[in-house]
Amino acid sequence: MLPYSQLQSGISMFSSRFHWDPRPNRLTQALAAKRAAGARILDLTESNPTHAGLRYPGEIVRAFDDTAMLAYQPAPAGTPAARQAVSGYYAARGHAVPAERILLTASTSEAYAYLFKLLTNPGDEVLAPRPSYPLFEFLADMESVAVRQYRLEYHGGWSIDLDAVERALTARTRAIVLVNPNNPTGSYVKRGELRALIALCAPRGVALISDEVFADYALAEDADRVATLAGVEECLAFSLSGLSKVAGLPQMKLGWMVVSGPPALRAAAWEKLEWIADTYLSVGTPVECAAARLLAAGDSVQRQIRQRTVENLAFARAALAGSPANILAVEGGWYMTLQVPRWRGEEEWTLELLECSGVLVQPGFFYDFETEAYLVVSLLTAPDIFREGLPLLVRQLTVA
Q: pTM here?
């Protein structure tokens, strides 16, 4: 690989979309060094369900025993059978979503790319939450779109700072991104928040994009929670999900979006999305043929994940009781956020935990937390690792 200085000197050869610093951060360097030395790492950041010790049913493999996948019949929005399978997924959760409003993609990341192509011109803006998963800026940059952030506030629970959303809106705003539930805060959009957002979006011609990949992983019931934006009628809205989280199958590469909103806007958006999808035709025939069986088989994986997240969270609450760490309120998803003493910065805490205890966690600044000091831990982590690592984390926080 060329030295960084040489990479910088040749940067004029390439698109300005690629402006990120490729150098590894201190935590990545420290982790690589520990692994190179053969050290045992208690990884409390596991986000890949296929690496988390779950039991995957054999039906997932048998789902591909179908000769129909040997014939290629391209369908820009996805095959009718696969879209009907996704429609059935929503029906099982009490939501009537016609297959005709479902467009398949290879992933939710690709769905974002389609929507940025649909809704924006170069230099336009989308609003995204802070803190949240560090993905939107990269995806938006690839489409020459700017990201403006709005705050999630914490006062014993997370909520959208609606005033911040309104202040962030400009003449170039084309969409507001919601992550429902948010990653890593685990907070869902509430009904009053959705009404307020629709009131902001509808008269301005701004779309709502709702990332709902973790929607099935609620830790408790809440009647005020918005489960999905599928069915919103007052403004153009897009609901995104996929097999990666719904069935714990990130390797299968099947995502989807549901197109909602006023009929005329919805029809115009659908027509253009089909053109975009027809240009790429990225969804594989085998996974489309297997979609219904994968969704059915994935139910058992989902149950295991829900049980694990609930049990790991209960263990964490007991292990951290009376410690310097405070677990912030979490409603769903696979993560929990710890507020830790500010006499260390987040980077120092993560490096110290890794070096002294062999425990890997993520710093809050990975997710754009505005203030110090927060650590993010995955509730998907295998129970034996989680139950060994959390007490070591507590001990390190206590003796530091």
A: 0.95
Query: Of the residues 271, 297, 323, which one is the last residue of a structural domain?
Result: 297
Peptide bond into 181 cis (omega under 30): yes
* Beta-sheet pairing, 255-260 with 102-105: antiparallel
Q: Which two tokens stand for residue 219?
A: 């830790």
Q: What is the mean pLDDT of each run of 10 residues along the chain (400 residues)?
A: 54 76 89 96 98 97 96 96 98 98 98 98 97 92 96 97 98 98 98 98 98 97 96 98 98 98 98 98 97 97 98 98 96 98 95 97 96 97 98 92
**Coil, strand or helix: which one is 358?**
coil
Roughly how many angstroms between the first and final C-alpha of the chain, as a whole number?
39
Integer CA distances (angstroms), 110 to 28, 60, 143, 323, 368, in order? 27, 24, 12, 42, 23
Question: Are 98 and 233 members of one domain?
Answer: yes
Q: Is 73 found in the same domain as 46?
A: no
* Single-letter code of the amino acid located at 250: P
In 3-state terms, what secondary structure has residue 375? Answer: strand
CATH (domain of 198) = 3.40.640.10
CA distance linking residue 311 with residue 9, whole number of Å = 51
Helix H segments across the chain?
4-9, 26-36, 59-62, 80-91, 108-119, 136-142, 162-168, 191-201, 243-246, 263-280, 285-320, 346-352, 383-399
Record the tokens describing residue 338, joined without a space.
């710890």
